[in-house]
Amino acid sequence: MNVHSQLIHSLEARYYTDPAHFEREKDGLLARTWQFAGHASLLQKPGDYFTIDIAGESIVCLKDREGVLRAYFNVCQHRAHQLVQGEGNTKLLVCPYHSWTYELTGGLRSGPNVKSVPGFDRNQICLSTVQIEDFCGFLFVNLDPNAKPMDAWFPNVREELRSFVPHIDRLQPLE
Ligand code: FES
Prior knowledge:
Layout lengths: L13 H4 L1 H9 L1 H4 L2 E5 L8 E7 L2 E7 L5 E5 L13 E3 L3 E2 L6 E2 L5 E3 L18 E7 L2 E5 L7 H4 L3 H8 L11
Antiparallel strand pairs: 1-10, 2-3, 2-5, 3-4, 4-9, 6-7, 7-8, 9-10
The structure holds FE2/S2 (inorganic) cluster.
């Protein structure tokens, strides 16, 4: 027997295609670990955003006006319509259903007739946040609000990558 054949371990093919397995991973692995969302070059300017689906959830990643990276569940707090699609640049997040409008920092800015609703306090309403990190130019999100930072998950990896590629944070995809 070839000695190397004893050292090869790989998942059976069904783990990549079995819908039941995917359903289990949506609540486990995918919902609690850092997942690659996109390259940081997608969010260069304030207002840049892109969306991504992870574990069956639509997430919007953006750079706010102060240059802070943010990620939210891409769901309006009014009637749960999807807020934005694809990628682009925007000053505000406007829900296409009834025009509730959110700041890039997640807070509700305005909505038709909200002032006429007794007791309505727009300051109490904001988009649900998702953790986001820039890891050497690669953006990762974690749906678990209690997840530890990536440096705790992968100690010294950031430094190790930079030792191999000192300008890794400034690299951009060409094509
Ligand atoms: S669902 Fe978004 S404004 Fe109504």
